[in-house]
Amino acid sequence: MQLLKDKILKEGKYLGKGILKVDSFMNHQIDPALMNEVGKEFARRFKDLKATRILTAETSGIAPALACAMILELPLVFARKHKPVTMAENPFTERAESHTKGSIVDLIVSPEYLKAEDRVIILDDFLASARTIKALVAIVASSGAELVGIGAVIEKSFEGGRDALKYLNIPIESLAAIKSFDNEQINF
Amino acid sequence: MQLLKDKILKEGKYLGKGILKVDSFMNHQIDPALMNEVGKEFARRFKDLKATRILTAETSGIAPALACAMILELPLVFARKHKPVTMAENPFTERAESHTKGSIVDLIVSPEYLKAEDRVIILDDFLASARTIKALVAIVASSGAELVGIGAVIEKSFEGGRDALKYLNIPIESLAAIKSFDNEQINF
Lengths: 188, 188
Description:
The structure is a homodimer.
Chain A: H1 2-11, E1 13-14, E2 20-21, H2 23-27, E3 29-30, H3 32-46, E4 53-57, H4 62-72, E5 76-79, E6 92-97, E7 104-109, E8 119-127, H5 131-143, E9 146-156, H6 161-165, E10 172-178
Parallel strand pairs in A: 4-5, 4-8, 8-9, 9-10
Antiparallel strand pairs in A: 1-2, 6-7
Helix pairs in contact in A: 3-4
């Protein structure tokens, strides 16, 4: 997606150690026009999957996933990192290591909003090592729902996440794939 | 906003102790069509404020604030609860007590995305005691920006948040105001 790549080149900052800062349009500030285009592009790629729900993880997955959910007209569920007092007992819970935060987080989804009859698309901001996405995949498996697609706004191809998800045999779509940060540059 | 009130009456659950569960359309699962209407209504009420940025707090404020930001075509900044490695040093930081979680959280905004020349609308999911919103107000004050409006999807009028913000002398808009939970009912 050229518009996204242009934005990454213009505003993204490589901070070293494989970390890309895109806080100006996705991870702290959100560019709503860009998110709308991101949502449209996901919707175009996933429109034939007969999905019934989109699943993401708080926090940074919410904006791109909501943009797509608006166009596909599907309910969006975001996995919580802490169980709120409003959540029913015995939620689906999986552990994931956060790459950029270096900490372990729980991802928690209530069975009220993920059913065995669902066809689920997982959407997130990044596909890197796929640790967060693998936790979401496990949550979908626990629910008995069928996972029909995975999407990420930005992929770091060199971190192996796509390979780790290949066994699922479903479409995996990223809108901008970074091949390397060689020479401290963003290389698509 | 009648559509929202109908949704609250249909799907909201009063859990006691002043806590309203709206996890089916805002706080865990998001109804994108409803959020779009919420965004439109905020945009209609705030369109003449000449705002330059919208500020919310992760997590549940993001969806309604993004829906509004898409229509007003304004950048949306969400305050982080933990400082990510990508954030610049010396961010604006304020402490707030979470009503539903019973815990203290930090709200953190980078000075990169909140400038003295900004005109800011604060949007959040709930206006109850206004503890979160007061922390956001303090962040806007720290930045030197001008706060021009405050909006919340659902207000619990009996918790005094609106009164606590009155001194600001700016428009405070909620789309559904709950007067009481008397008789374990949701009373608008």
